[in-house]
Amino acid sequence: MGILTKAPRGTQDILPAKSAPWQAMERELIATAQRFGFQEIRTPTFEHTELFSRSVGDTTDVVQKEMYTFTDKGDRSITLRPEGTAGAARAVIEHGLLSEALPVKVSYLLSCFRYEKPQAGRLREFHQFGAELYGSASPAADADLIALASQALANIGIREVSLEINSIGCPNCRPAYLQALRDYFEAHREKLCPTCLERLQKNPLRILDCKNPDCAAVAKDAPLVLDHLCGDCRDHFDGLRARLDTLAIPYTVNPRIVRGLDYYTRTVFEFVSGGIGAQSTVCGGGRYDGLIGELGGPQTPALGFAMGLERLLLVLEAQGNPPPAAESCDLYIAPMGETAAVKAFQLANLLRDEGYYAETDLMGRSLRAQMKYADKLGAKFSLVLGEDELAKGEGMLKDMESGETLPLPLGEGLLEEVDRRMAARAYAQLEKSIQENLED
Ligand code: HAM
């Protein structure tokens, strides 16, 4: 296949037949976030490169290896966002949102770009749903955010997922831990990849999430950050655990979670799902109390998470969840002849204006071919319009499932009759499904 008809590696088209599960999932995620008080924020697809190197960190894999960076025609270094936290932080600082009542809570749905090796659940363009909370240092905020993630996952139908939490300390306790890591890795330096050798002095924490298998083997026995927390960080972590217990949200403490981004302090967490292969983290997040100040905003504690939508869909598929059906056509109007075609066109638009999904012929098909097409659309009702119907001012509305037909006025009273028939059909279907459920 030529380059003109093949999407770039690591990207994927969401075709019309697959859009219903995406739309259903996105609706549910946004609605859940709203119930927790998070309002949507939309930020640009690209930002100044420095925003990411300063926030995500210039010793991370994301910044060192994975960013789509280019120089624009004005000689600026620009990067397609690899994640949503940095852009959201920049926006809330730029627009002064942090001087309003705290906490400020935002959520987002966006595409992200990372030049990674594509595999199942790992793309170069992927989509995230995320939430960020600014202004609270309390572990209650961490629990609130984790509760949101947990309810969001449940609401979209994810069943088998486990929550893993950890604390990676703060600027008080981090230096001693970093020194312990340096000492450990120094003793194994011959096994480290060239990038990790550089990280050894600058940021040994990043060696812990290097994807190189030799580095990962050494990292397995490295000192654990949980053993090096200061009293305040330990209290914060205990506070989070107590809150999660109150909400009966199950979790395990995984002292090996460090996350791959530099801005985190204290709490980090991941939701992991089995059954979708190596890329099993469906959601990752944590606290980043230093970032807002670091970027030039007022010192503001903050925290957030993001989930990968492609991975969530993989989990739903692996669980065997039936995909939500696309909306089916309410009424197909099949005209015969030019005059009827004009009337059908008007009626279809009138019904659409009333909120119905109405279709008519745009292909000049025969009546038979039109009815076949109406079937393909899953139309609930059809209406044939010919000379006779136009002359009488009345057509026959046909229920495509039962075959039952009833007269439909084409002028006054049309909308009322359509409303009545649609409601009666929906009611009959509801009764049928209740009956079926009772029999099960
Ligand atoms: P992250 O762990 O880099 O965190 O990404 C969050 C989620 O995005 C991952 O758990 C995964 O589900 C999905 N994801 C990441 N990379 C890919 C990829 N190449 N292909 C498909 N899915 C992917 C962040 O991005 C942080 N900004 C999360 C956060 C928000 N922390 C605080 N606030």
Give descriptors for this structure.
40% helix; alpha+beta; elongated; eight-stranded mixed beta sheet; binds histidyl-adenosine monophosphate; single chain; 440 residues; five-stranded mixed beta sheet; 15 helices
Task: Please describe the topology of this protein.
Blueprint (H helix, E strand, L loop, with lengths): L18 H17 L3 E2 L5 E3 H9 L3 H6 L1 E4 L5 E4 L4 H10 L9 E10 L11 E10 L4 H17 L6 E6 L6 H13 L7 H9 L10 H7 L11 H16 L5 E2 L11 E8 L8 E7 L3 H4 L7 E7 H11 L11 E5 L2 H16 L4 E3 L6 H10 L4 E5 L1 H6 L1 E6 L5 E5 L4 H26 L1
Parallel strand pairs: 1-5, 7-8, 12-13, 12-14
Antiparallel strand pairs: 2-4, 3-4, 5-6, 6-11, 7-9, 9-10, 10-11, 14-15, 15-16
Helix pairs in contact: 1-5, 5-9
The structure holds histidyl-adenosine monophosphate (HAM).
The site of histidyl-adenosine monophosphate has 27 residues, from strand 6, strand 10, strand 11 and helix 11.
What does this structure look like?
The chain has helices spanning 19-35, 49-57, 61-66, 85-94, 139-155, 174-186, 194-202, 213-219, 231-246, 291-294, 309-319, 338-353, 367-376, 387-392, 414-439, and strands spanning 39-40, 46-48, 68-71, 77-80, 104-113, 125-134, 162-167, 252-253, 265-272, 281-287, 302-308, 331-335, 358-360, 381-385, 394-399, 405-409. By secondary structure, the chain is of the alpha+beta class. The strands form 3 sheets. The protein has an 8-stranded mixed beta sheet. The chain has a 5-stranded mixed beta sheet with strand order 13-12-14-15-16, with helices on both faces. It is built from 15 helices and 16 strands. Histidyl-adenosine monophosphate (HAM) binds at residues 83-85, 114, 116, 121-123, 126, 128, 130, 132, 260-261, 281-286, 304-308, 310-311.
